[in-house]
């Protein structure tokens, strides 16, 4: 889990850097208003036409082994079906895992260390050939090859023998922990209980790949489709991706993807301001356009909000994501819990939210877990600062900690204009802490330097801005990488920034991982979040809210709490 977090954080950062100045995530009540617009629920969706996708970031490495996705991804999910997938519904309903190629979400046995799946009947590739369990096994195995790295690392950690397996190009025997007793059955044997395996089975590594059609690193140019669309053109490593109907895909085996458009034209490498301007103008082909990675910034949102027609074409989302202050308790004075508590009380969340673009783009956070049921959200506020900070309580704690005359500390942040770990947020914290007698010096670093510094156990500063996004909507991939003591990495990317190694916390993580009742697990994750929060190892600041424009001819807007982005498998342009 810890390895995957690098990408989870990076992916969330991609969406948020355009995001909180923008948006990328699940759906709130406002979406219902958006759906009732001229491009929404009043207009019945129909098949046909071309959907244009205008993005900043190219859809690179379009190989199911190399993609790091949540719920199968957005554009990838049009081509690659997986054992399970996300429920394609608005809001909280969209955070559930449902069957895709499989008949169910998996059958656990032997204390959730064995998971068995049965494939649906009649599954075929774009050439009409049958999809078999052996193809899924092979697709997973090739994701272990060094030349196809980049995907989620969980299988390397979870599968028996996964840590040493080198992929099918070097090891022809394959992974013995993946069994295919017949063409429709696949069995996974894990080295520890994992009740959330159905979530993992949504990743593109679980997409079938026919061994005879595998072209190694060139497979991304024309991967064999198991979804409603096939790749007909891939220019400049995903900068221009053209998808057309896979005539051998059958809706009778796929309850999730609507596949209304005849063609999907993905154009990337565009400036975010250009994307929003084109979606705003909605001229020509742009009338049937969406974006999957570019959000409205504060200034753009203000402009859009003043235009009734444009405001009706804004989708709102909430992704499982938290922006926060992190402490390194190995660095003085943050080794003293009272100093950490004092800062927690002193923070002015109202000014932080203003710095993040305002209340339309950020929601105050006092819990580490996002405020969504699937994560196990349990309300708590151990150090109530109110809306504008509690300077008096902070001073009281500082005095108890031996800093009656005040304190000087350094806050490390990124110089990236991402409205989350950037100078605007750091300055808001600096101003609030000054009222409590804490002088904050700001250390701004270029984004790569910032990331390297805060994720290295040897160089991690004592006081810095951080953020986290989950690989799937559960408390597990949110809490474990940050607070499981066994995930502390001394020589590599470390995300347990508070260096917490509490046996009771570690034991509870193991106990929850054994649960296959995901609702019960969520409740336990929430309780664990509340318990860890008492140690003041982080100061939750806000959860981003994402706002995205779509073209005037786009209908059937679905934005789930899993991805928080408009689901292009659902939209119609006719």
TrEMBL record:
Pfam families: SBP_bac_5. Residues 28-50 are annotated as: Disordered. Residues 1-26 form the signal peptide. SUPFAM superfamilies: Periplasmic binding protein-like II (SSF53850). InterPro entries: Peptide/Ni-bd, SBP_5, SBP_5_dom. Residues 96-486 form the Solute-binding protein family domain. Keywords: Signal. This is ABC transporter substrate-binding protein. It comes from Streptomyces tauricus.
């Amino acid at each position: 889990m810890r390895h995957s977090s690098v990408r989870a954080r990076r992916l969330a950062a991609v969406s948020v850097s355009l995001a909180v100045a923008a948006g990328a995530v699940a759906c709130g009540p406002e979406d219902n208003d958006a759906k009732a617009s001229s491009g929404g629920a009043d207009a019945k969706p129909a098949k046909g036409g071309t959907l244009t996708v205008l993005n900043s970031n190219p859809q690179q490495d379009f190989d199911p082994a190399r993609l790091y996705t949540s719920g199968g991804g957005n554009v990838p999910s049009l081509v690659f079906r997986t054992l399970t997938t996300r429920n394609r519904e608005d809001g909280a309903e969209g955070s559930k895992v449902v069957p895709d190629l499989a008949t169910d979400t998996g059958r656990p046995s032997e204390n959730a260390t064995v998971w068995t799946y049965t494939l649906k009947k009649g599954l075929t590739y774009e050439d009409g050939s049958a999809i078999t369990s052996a193809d899924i096994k092979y697709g997973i195995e090739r994701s272990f090859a060094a030349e196809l790295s980049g995907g989620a690392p969980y299988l390397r950690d979870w599968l028996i023998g996964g840590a040493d397996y080198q992929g099918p190009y070097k090891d022809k025997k394959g992974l013995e922990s993946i069994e295919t007793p017949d063409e429709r059955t696949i069995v996974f044997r894990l080295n520890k209980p994992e009740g959330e395996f159905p979530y993992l089975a949504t990743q593109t590594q679980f997409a079938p790949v026919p061994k005879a059609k595998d072209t190694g690193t060139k497979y991304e140019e024309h991967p064999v489709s198991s979804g409603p669309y096939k790749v007909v053109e891939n220019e400049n490593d995903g900068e221009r991706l053209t998808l057309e109907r896979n005539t051998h895909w059958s809706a009778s085996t796929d309850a999730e993807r609507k596949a209304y458009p005849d063609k999907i034209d993905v154009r990337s490498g565009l400036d975010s301001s250009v994307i929003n301007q084109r979606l705003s103008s909605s001229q020509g082909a742009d009338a049937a356009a969406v974006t999957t990675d570019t959000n409205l910034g504060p200034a753009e949102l203000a402009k859009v909000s003043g235009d009734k027609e444009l405001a009706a074409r804004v989708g709102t989302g909430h992704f499982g994501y938290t922006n926060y202050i992190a402490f390194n308790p190995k660095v003085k004075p943050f080794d003293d819990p009272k100093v950490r508590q004092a800062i927690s009380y002193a923070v002015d969340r109202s000014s932080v939210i203003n710095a993040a673009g305002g209340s339309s783009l950020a929601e105050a956070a006092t819990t580490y877990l996002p405020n969504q049921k699937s994560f196990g959200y349990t309300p708590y506020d151990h150090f109530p600062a109110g809306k504008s900070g509690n300077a008096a309580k902070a001073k009281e704690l500082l005095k108890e900690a031996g800093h009656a005359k005040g304190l000087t500390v350094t806050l490390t942040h990124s110089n990236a204009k991402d409205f989350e770990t950037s100078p605007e947020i750091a300055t808001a914290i600096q101003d609030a802490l000054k009222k409590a007698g804490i002088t904050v010096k700001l250390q701004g670093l270029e984004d790569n330097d910032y990331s390297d510094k805060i994720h290295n156990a040897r160089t991690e500063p004592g006081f810095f801005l951080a953020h986290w996004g989950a690989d799937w909507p559960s408390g597990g991939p949110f809490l474990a990488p940050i607070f499981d003591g066994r995930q502390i990495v001394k020589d590599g990317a470390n995300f347990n920034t508070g260096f917490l190694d509490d046996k009771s916390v570690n034991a509870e993580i193991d106990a929850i991982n054994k649960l296959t009742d995901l609702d019960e697990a969520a409740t336990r994750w929430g309780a664990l979040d509340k318990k860890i929060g008492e140690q003041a190892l982080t100061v939750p600041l806000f959860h981003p809210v994402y706002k995205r424009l779509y073209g005037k001819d786009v209908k059937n807007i679905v934005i789930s709490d899993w991805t928080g982005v408009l689901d292009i498998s659902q939209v119609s342009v006719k």
